[in-house]
Every structure is written in C-alpha cells, then in structure tokens.
Design a protein that fits this description.
The chain has about 210 residues and is α/β, with parallel strands linked by helices. It is built from 6 helices and 7 strands. Strand 3, helix 4 and strand 4 form a beta-alpha-beta unit. Helix 4 runs parallel beside helix 6.
C-alpha cells in the first residue's frame, strides 16, 4: 500500500509546480521532494526522500542549520518520537535534515584538489557519526535523522537567519510552520509545536 501511495506522490508533485516556486506557507503544498542522506532509520546509509516515502500521511519535517544537538532540540525530538509511538493509528512520521554550512556536497566534494576532497569527506563522516550517536543517545525509535547540503533543499526557501524550520503537513499541504532563529527556539516553542502535532496532525495521545 505504501508503495502505491509513494507512486501517487510522484504523480501529484508535478501538478504542484506553481507552489514549488513559493516559500513555505501555511495552506500551500510542499515545494516537492528532496533526497537527503539517511543517517538513521529504515533507509540508513542511503539517499531517500522522506516526503515521497511517507506519501499523503501526516508528517513533521525539520530542517536544522548545522549539526548540533543543543537544547531544546533533544526535547523536541524525543517528544515527537513518543507521539509517534503512542499514536500508531495516525501513522505520523518525522524526519530531521541537518544542513551544515561546511558541507558542499553530501556525496563528497568534487573539487579537483584531492586534499580538499579528503578534507570534505572526513568532515562528512564525522558529521554522520555525530548524528548517529546522538540518535542512539536519545533512544529515538521513529524520528529519522538525515544529512543534506543546502542546494538540495533550495526549493524550500530556507533562510540562513533561521536555526530551525519545522513543517507540519498532511496530504502534502502545510498545516503549521515554525521558522525560528536561535533566540526563539525555546521550550515554550516546543510546547506550541507539540500542541499543533496533537491538534493538526491527530497525535493526541501523550
């Protein structure tokens, strides 16, 4: 069934081309698929699109600038994981894409200088290890962590001024959106996000 839904998503996205050029906005459709490197989850160590995979089901997409796990990010991720665990009938998904400034290409740098290539590849591997260890430390069972470069998500219109962007959507339509600089990403904001996860995505069991 999921395979059929994923196939339908690929058919739906071309029809949403007009929305793809617009910034993220509540009421708009998602700009389209992207292909992060999955560090954890069922597609671990593969490039896989979480949007296409989850189809029309409710989803939380998080884009996080750089690879860091300072508070309150762990709190948000653990609470999302618990919401997914306690509301299996909702079939909620959550995916975090880390977007480090110093990662020119997730696949590996294509610079002609081999020393530069090696440096970038080493940095990517270190980021991957850090993300994987953080997921293990938080005991995440459902929230998937990934790594990508900014060019792959350019269509989402993410701002460098925002530490985190949280997108809640159902049937590919954005129902809640948080674009937050570091100063606004607080425990109080996490509470608001989780309230929206309950009210707008249906994960009401806490």
């Amino acid at each position: 069934m999921r395979t059929l839904v994923s196939a339908l998503v690929f058919l739906v996205f071309p029809a949403l081309h007009a929305a793809a050029d617009a910034p993220l906005k509540v009421g708009n459709n998602l700009p389209g698929p992207f292909h992060p490197y999955n560090v954890t989850g069922p597609y671990k160590q593969h490039f896989h699109c979480p949007v296409s995979d989850h189809g029309l089901l409710p989803m939380v997409l998080i884009f996080y600038k750089n690879v860091a796990f300072s508070d309150p990010l762990p709190n948000l991720l653990k609470r999302l994981d618990a919401a997914i665990d306690k509301n299996p009938d909702v079939r909620l998904g959550a995916f975090v894409t880390f977007l480090p400034d110093n990662l020119p290409d997730v696949v590996g740098s294509k610079a002609s200088n081999q020393d530069v290539n090696s440096k970038h590849d080493d940095a990517r591997l270190e980021m991957e290890k850090k993300i994987e260890q953080a997921g293990a430390d938080m005991k995440l069972k459902h929230v998937v962590l990934g790594l990508d470069n900014k060019s792959d998500v350019a269509k989402y219109g993410l701002s460098d001024d925002h530490l985190i962007t949280v997108v809640l959507y159902v049937k590919l339509k954005v129902v809640a959106l948080y674009t937050l600089p570091k100063s606004d990403f607080t425990d109080a904001t996490v509470e608001k996000i989780m309230t929206d996860v309950s009210d707008k995505l249906g994960a009401k069991r806490k």
